[in-house]
Design a protein that fits this description.
Layout (H helix, E strand, L loop, with lengths): L6 E10 L2 E11 L4 E5 L6 H8 L7 E6 L2 E2 L4 H5 L2 E4 L11 H10 L5 H14 L15 H12 L6 E5 L7 H16 L3 E5 L3 H7 L2 E6 L2 E6 L1 H8 L3 E6 L7 H7 L6 E4 L4 E5 L2 H10 L6 E6 L2 H9 L6
Parallel strand pairs: 3-8, 3-9, 6-7, 7-8
Antiparallel strand pairs: 1-2, 1-4, 4-5, 9-10, 11-13, 11-14, 12-13
Length: 311
Amino acid sequence: MADQPLIYARGLVKRFGEFTAVNGIDLDVAPGEAFGFLGPNGAGKSSTMRMIGCVSTPTAGELRILGMDAVHDGPRIRARLGVCPQLDNLDPDLTVRENLVTYARYFGLSRAESRRRADELLEFVQLGDRAGGKVEPLSGGMKRRLTIARAMVNDPDLVLLDEPTTGLDPQARHLLWERLFRLKQRGTTLVLTTHYMDEAEQLCDRLVVMDGGRIVAEGSPRSLIETYSTAEVVELRFPGMPEVGPRYAAALEGVGKRVDPLPDRVLVYVDDGDAALAEIQRRGLEPTSVLVRRSTLEDVFLHLTGRTLVD
């Protein structure tokens, strides 16, 4: 498997009646890679993840996971996967350690091996001191770390993470990122969906942006920024916004490569923020506040998928 993709999809389609959730996508995920899916609600991310997890059958196309056919070899594939769902589904009646030991037994591990792996993983996610306690008193971040530990108990070849840090405070998110980064260092292949652009930049070697069931962009976070955005973004606020936003946006045309008027500010996408500010001053424009920042994956995401809220 070293020279073959762990996930291989060609022309992958998923339909629900007349609705096409995934519309003919191609993708490869290499061993040891951290691969991400980005996209607005309804883009097809979850449907794709469910097909990769072999809990939803593709409508059309080819999908091979770990060198096996996802349609015919589902049980064998699932035995080698680790899954961290978006919502924690830990057993509140069991202790922290028992949640791992019981889950490990489903994979045919002996009691002794199950306990050994449970203790090792609890130390890895920094929950060793909570091993004998119940799940319910744990914080949200602790529960997510326990869910990730449970996903690792069968020593999987591939770990699927659906929105792994949703709802966590910044400290808990950063601790979880550090644990996931250590998994990547161990050579574990990670596939994740996330709505946090900074999370995708931190964790993903490569990612795809999905919209309307299709892949609209693919590459490393840095290559996507270089392709679809600019080096810097100038954020300007003017008195009288949002009413005057379109007028100022028109006055800023030509300062950068793209001008994006928002209700509370105007974004100007430029290669050189200082040069752009000099030009803005030369044109006699007087913003009430100015921020020059580097372009981010969020700029790419909004450029490719739009700013309209999708329910």
